[in-house]
Amino acid sequence: MKLVVALSGDAMITRGAMVRATPGAEALRTLLREADVAFTNLETVAADHDGPHTSHPLTPTLTADACVLDDLADVGIDVVSFANNHALNLGVPGMTGTIRELAARRLAHAGAGKSLEEATMPAYVDRPTGSVAVIACTSTFGTGDDASGPAELMPPRPGLNPLRFHTRLHVRPEQLAALRAAHRDLGFDEQLKYAVDMGFLPPLPDEQDERLFGQVFREADEPAVQTWCDPRDLERIQRWVAEAAERADVVVVSVHGHEQGGALTEPAAFQREFAHAVIDSGADVVAGHGPHRLRGIEFHGGRPIFYGLGNFVDQIHLQDRLTPHTYDVFGVAPGSPGARAAATSTGFPEHPEYARSVVATLTFDDGALADVELWPISLGRDRPAAHRGAPELASGPEIGTIGEELAELSQRYGTRLRARGDRFTVHAAAEHD
């Protein structure tokens, strides 16, 4: 029996009428509705602005009326990830309020909850053709946004499902010497010694490492950034993936992260480590979110990893309510000329690559992956403000532009794309030859 799963990118939805009266928008809605299960990453607190705003650095608050979720349901979305750096923009009340509003519309969610285990556990969507489990986590989040388990006399903390990671910066000997001197001359050596002596900061376990300016450095022949998953988080998520694989026909793992490798379009090393590990534990597909632009596609064990699906909805500029923190982030005073426009504008419209995205449809036949198709979508960066950011299937030359970009990004992983009319099929190189 065939089961079709549709995966989309980041949904920064703040206003209604997501589906415009255009053939491309209607075709996208048909595509999503015809899938057995359709998924997106919800990057908006949609709880009628309930809860105090948070003040995490460089994180403008993204909020909307709860009715925007009606548009997601109308377009065919069945399940969302709510593990990202915006989910707690209005604190725990905003997070739990959004979860209630999702449930009221029969939209499943994963990645946030009243405790760490609840935030980690899968969301299940059951259809006559089969069952899909979704597990969601994020590596980018504010301090205190991550959920916790209970202690002996303390209740758990509500929040997100975290994927923490570690970083080591490799630098040349002369670079390390300069860093040491600057750290000493600025008085930070004394502060660091105090923190370690008082037990506030544990000593580094490896003698080759040094802690300078809040980072861990190691001498090396060439500069490099080394990252790896926190084993506790990785093992916890793998445990739930293995359980989901026994209880569902298809397991989707969603991971949100702003981190990068050597370029914006490359995943960090820990992100690849994570994707490979959860597939080895039973995941059928990994969907990456957070960069707001396309990244390459890799196959591991015959199962696809989408390192970046791009934006699905981008209505940041249409927010109705802004917090004082949002104005602070953009350096403008509330009520000053052009303040609202400045605080709701991002660089996305200035850079066309952030308006090029895809919806991926995966067809499973009796649990085995049979087909992967990519449907290029456009967010209409040249449309008037009220219409900009709403998705529709791309047309004309834009289809080829998106396909060429993804083909180039995926080539390094041995993945190839083949044009099929207005969409592309995706293959591991060995399958394509």
UniProtKB/TrEMBL annotation:
SMART domains: PGA_cap. Residues 4-316 form the Capsule synthesis protein CapA domain. Gene3D superfamilies: 3.60.21.10. It comes from the Bacteria. Belongs to the CapA family. This is CapA family protein. InterPro entries: Capsule_synth_CapA, CW_Biosynth-Accessory, Metallo-depent_PP-like. It comes from Saccharopolyspora hirsuta.
